[in-house]
Amino acid sequence: MAKEMVAMILAGGQGSRLYALTDKLAKPAVPFGGKYRIIDFPLSNCVNSGIDTVGILTQYQPLVLNEYIGHGQPWDLDRLHGGVHVLPPYQQAKNSDWYKGTANAIYQNLSFLRRYDPEYVIILSGDQICKQDYNDFLEFHKAKGADFSVAVMEVPWDEASRFGLMVTDSDDRISEFQEKPKEPKSNLASMGIYIFNFDVLEKYLEDDEANPDSSNDFGNDILPALLRDGKKMFAYRFKGYWKDVGTISSLWEANMEVLNPESSGINLFDDDWKIYSRSSGKAAQYIAEGAVIDNAMLTNGCRVFGTVRHSILFAGVEVEEGAVVEDAVVMGNVKISKGAKVSHCIVGEGATIGENSVVGEKPSPGNEKNVATVGPGVKIGARAVISGTAMVKEDVEEGGKC
Amino acid sequence: MLKNKHDAIAVIFANSYDNEVPSLVNERLMASIPFAGRYRLVDFTLSSLVDCGINNVSIIVKKNYRSLMRHLGSGRPWDLVRKNGGLNIVPPYAEKGIKVYNGRVEAVASILEFLKGCKEQYVFMTDSNIVCNFDFTDMIRAHIDSGADVSIAYKNEPIPYGFMNLQSTQATDLYYTLDLDGNRVTSINTNSKEYGPQNLSMNLYLTEREKLIEQIEKAYAQGHIFYERDVLAPMIETSKICGYEFKGYSARITDMVSYFEENMKLLNPDNFKNLFDGFNVYTTVRDDNPARYCSGSKVSNSLVADGCVIEGEVDNCVLFRGVHVGKGTHIRNCIVMQDTVIAGNCDIEYTIMDKEVSVASGKSIKGERTFPVFVPAFKQIL
Question: Does the beta-carbon distance from A295 to B294 stay under 8 Å?
């Protein structure tokens, strides 16, 4: 049975700019927003857009991601025909290889796509926080009679030179690309979300593979080839919330924006566009007498005896008496001991913060991008002090400094 | 047999003591009464069974079972979608000969053919009005060690007020206390009025499947109704019936006040720990967002589930999934079930609000600890 559109999510990235957080897991598996992982967003978007066949291309540290995706039931993607498939590189009769680039990753899985005989393929990135109806995008693609479309965001002109830009004519047809140019001719930044007609994708991936000089990357190789051949390429302007959470500070910032849905634009309280995730299965959260919680989001299994301000606590976080958590992203099963002060930071899953220790600090104005980070499972000893710029990967002893 | 698998099946009676909590079972049954912020009563027994490796579970329902069926679905949250065994819901009239039952004998008689078709050696039978983290593995071990024909789980505790003052006028709600010699049961007393701690049966039984079939076939043919009174009590001399004392934390729902109190007891962190630190407790997943505590909200000594949005003040409450508490509203000592919305500037105390209630702004509702106000599901207080 043919599928109109199949989604392929690129989830192989290491996310090296997330440092300690991605030591043991791929970037798409990084926790976000209290009970989600980044991959929940593209997956939920697919399901909410009616796409029921999704390939997830994994390569770097796939264990956590594999276990998390499982057979796809939390996203309603356990289907008889289609559903979600994790696609790691595999050994073939000839040419076994890691995924050499984004295009090569899809190329190696062309046989997966052919099984569903799709008209269109949407290529998604597994490391963005975005709520998007891919149907609207596909409608645009069809209406333009395009071979290829890319979703773009309008960015402020003075920031445009930080992005990969699409230069278009009045009909949104792409005439030129600019990669982080000094003098931008456009303010339409590529979101890295593409729709291809499958026959076009197939042909260009095969040609690209045959070219030994290619870096096998969509941005570097496939798109320029399409443009060179005069294919019909269009830019689709997306207007909702979109954030690349590739760095510690952008990950922290996006989490903080969740606390302010009225003005930030990321609303997780949307019954018509639910973000699905695998449940922690923990009991209700307990807020003790004397605890203070002010402008925060907490998830099941949390137990709070201290103070939590302007923070996000994932499932099973414990905040003991006298501890103060402020402007912090505290991932699952972290224990924050008595009297500890945790501020302006990200604390990885399962870390332990010792009594009366200090983790992170409120940055001076202009230095908001300084976000202290404690890696998953790290133990911070009692009375230790972790500076506002620290990136802690290993245990810190009692009274230690980092 | 692997250590974590057991050669046993389980039968749960879902309508036990329905008559004692009439408001709560208006549109549901005992097993599906919401409890502890995000669970239904049956979740606890189901989860303990599954975590003890018992994957063949039958739930016998009598009436008002739609809410339970919706809750259980295919049984996936409990990992009970199994090729062998899994979840088996048995409503009345589902087959020739399955009628509305009164007592356990009739209920089990209705699944005799099913029992005969099973291969497992043991059968657990249990009610659904007790919440606990129960180690079924340990009970099987004790049963084998004692050489008992039937084991009865009991807890040494005073007879609850609800039992002493049973609401039901039809004498179908019975409770039992056990006299013991060592662990051997020497007498089963029906609806005893003794004060002080008693060996109060948890109505949780373990016996061999073939023995149960034999007992039930005989009792049913003789027109008997109650397993304890009509089957077990008469065989005390001739068979070995043993007590199995459960020493863990348990909450027994016997009337509205105990329902209120047992929820509130979980606000004590020790009790909460004792109930939840054993086996996992599984329930349906709703995909709620994390709970949001808005600026200016105040929450103290409360259980809050995912999906709640709190703008006002909450003291000593249990809030289920998706509850909204508006700005300027103060709720104290309340149980608020899923998706109830309380607008701003309300003042509410000692109230149990069933699910999807909506309270307009500025309302005041006050009950007493000994008589909590109950607001039925979907009620709009305008």
Answer: yes
